[in-house]
């Protein structure tokens, strides 16, 4: 049954006195709490009043216990102890014999009965003292045993804790090593990803460049086609790689009026370092290197120049690779593009 | 002559007897024992469930009165309160010592707490019916939880922390229930307290 007013009633309780009931019922856990209660009761009249009230109530608990009659011998034993516990004042008139002492009482009480009261009293003093010391020693021994038990339990707990901590440490080290491995792997993957990304960027850049060059070549071709259609230029030759070393090709055109010429090439590979593509006109005396030109990333170029003589005076066109700024009198043997002039 | 002397002692109050005891008056101690010995012994039996140990406790209690009677200060409370405090304290000490011993041998203390009431005489039972009826009725009227914490502390010797652990109640709740139980008893029996013991 729960007291419906319990919570309400507890609100009326002074929190300073919360340990009073436990003190009175011998239910406090340690001496510090007991000392605190005693100090408060000594110092505070309200605390004293509360304490006395609860103490009186606790007395009722003792009174309400079902009565049990103690053995008759108990009273006699207590009175014997009381007599023996005091200074050995032994008088002949002492009414010892009037007390019914059972045979089961202590040995020194029978000494009284035998008439050796004085010596017995002295013996009792010694026995009580020895008994008290023995009792104290027994209690101390019990306390030591108890403390030893506690210490054993604490030691076992420490060993267990140590094992647990060691296991945790090993586990932590394993996890750290595992995490480090994962991080290394992630770093490698990140590095690979980064390299791939850079490579892709480079490819994109190259594609953009190629795209720009292609646009330029297409624009040039378109222009040439345009001017040819307008008959401002006349396409004179289609250049090709007759040695079939590549897919390179080109177109050569000359302005209808005047000596201006243009050619446009595609598909050439990048020249060897220190060399440049060179256009030759042949068939009118000594070969003439009319121009050196660079090509774009996709191997294209559009070049305009002035013919040294009318185009029909030449028999062929040749594109070779010659040393930059050091062109020989004749074209090299390897011809990358060539065409007949007529 | 001795009988007259004893009768004179019977007419003394508790405090007057205690004064004589302070002067090492053995007859005063005998009278005080006759007055309270049975109650102290009954309390010890109720808590310890062992008449032999209860005898030792009762003996120790009256020897404490014999030695420490002069230290009793009447303004700090009634003599009976003082006496039963000593009795309860000594009994609980014995109970806890026994519990420690039992716990070392992994024994179960509850197996040893078989209350024996066979020693109650018909006369005592009659007295109990009349003298303690109101107190017991007041105790029975306590809420179950409050009665339980009183039983576990006062009669089973558990500390308030042990009670909290055993019952699963918060420590503060245990403290409150102890106080409320005592206050209710006090309130219900305020009239009795003026005349009891």
Commentary on this structure:
With 342 residues, chain A is of the alpha+beta class. Chain A has three domains: 6-63, no CATH class; 72-147, no CATH class; 231-340, Immunoglobulin-like (Sandwich), CATH 2.60.40. Chain A has helices at 6-10, 20-24, 31-43, 45-63, 72-85, 107-113, 117-229, and strands at 233-240, 249-255, 260-266, 275-282, 288-293, 301-306, 316-323, 337-340. In chain A, the strands form two sheets. Chain A has a four-stranded antiparallel β-sheet, with helices on one face. Chain A has a four-stranded antiparallel β-sheet with strand order 5-4-7-8, with no helix packed on it. Chain A is rod-shaped. Chain A starts with 5 loop residues before the first helix and ends with a strand. Chain B is an all-alpha fold and 197 residues long. Helix content of chain B is 75%, strand content 0%. Chain B has helices at 2-10, 14-22, 26-48, 51-68, 79-104, 122-131, 133-140, 144-155, 160-167, 171-188, 190-195. The two termini of chain B are 29 Å apart. At the A-B interface, α1, α2, α4, α5 and α7 of A face α3, α4, α5, α6 and α7 of B.
Alpha-beta content class of chain A: alpha+beta
Count of DSSP-assigned helices of chain A: 7
Secondary structure: helix percent of chain A: 40-55%
Strand order of the largest sheet of chain A: 1-2-3-6
How would you spell out the order of helices and strands of chain B? HHHHHHHHHHH
In angstroms, what is the radius of gyration of chain A?
A: 63 Å
Distance between the termini of chain A: 127 Å
CATH topology of the largest domain in chain A: Immunoglobulin-like
Largest interface, per-chain counts? A-B, 55 and 82 residues
Structural class of chain B: mainly alpha
Say what the CATH topology of the largest domain in chain B is. Rna Polymerase Sigma Factor, Chain: A
CATH H-tier superfamily of the largest domain in chain B? RNA polymerase sigma factor, region 2, helix turn helix motif
User: Radius of gyration of chain B over alpha carbons?
Assistant: 19 Å
Identify the CATH architecture of the largest domain in chain A.
Answer: Sandwich
Residue-averaged pLDDT of chain A: 78
Total beta-strand segments of chain A: 8
Strand content of chain B: under 5%
